[in-house]
Design goal:
Layout: E1 2-6, H1 7-14, H2 19-33, E2 36-42, E3 48-50, E4 53-58, H3 61-72, E5 78-81, H4 85-90, E6 96-98, H5 100-108, H6 128-139
Parallel strand pairs: 1-2, 1-5, 2-4, 5-6
Antiparallel strand pairs: 3-4
Length: 140
């Protein structure tokens, strides 16, 4: 399964203070789902990989999100998370499309099968190299 996130939409819908906080949250979610993901931000920045999540930057994030959805929707289940109605419309019938607010609402609901005590931080499960790369990425 592939999650494609409109980074700026989710960042603002969730009231995250920083991109790094959002990336940590999304990487954790994707890892717990046993999936992989791509978060795309508008503008210029350094692409990175944080566990199962790719962080990408594009002059026009919407175009990249649409292209990624089109490339992958025939090969695997794709969920596009964006509040942009145009993206949700053009991502294709084969994709699951979720608004940023609905995704964050789903994310906030605890899983019925897990207790809060049993949950651990995804970072705790990362291998040493991935943990080092995550720290390097956070420092910029």
């Amino acid at each position: 399964m592939l999650f494609i996130f409109d980074g700026n939409n989710v960042l603002h819908a969730g009231g995250f203070g920083t991109r790094e906080g959002l990336v940590d949250t999304l990487a954790g979610h994707v890892a717990l789902e046993g999936a992989r993901g791509v978060v795309v931000f508008d503008g210029v920045g350094e692409d990175a990989v944080v566990g199962p999540l790719e962080v990408r930057f594009a002059e026009h994030a919407d175009d990249l999100i649409e292209r990624l959805a089109a490339e992958h929707r025939g090969r695997e289940p794709v969920t596009v998370v964006s509040s942009d109605r145009a993206i949700r419309t053009t991502a294709g019938q084969e994709t699951r499309r979720v608004s940023a607010k609905n995704f964050l609402r789903e994310l906030a609901q605890p899983s019925p099968s897990s207790s809060q005590q049993a949950r651990s931080r995804v970072e705790d499960a990362l291998d040493e190299e991935t943990r080092r790369r995550l720290e390097d990425w956070r420092r910029g």
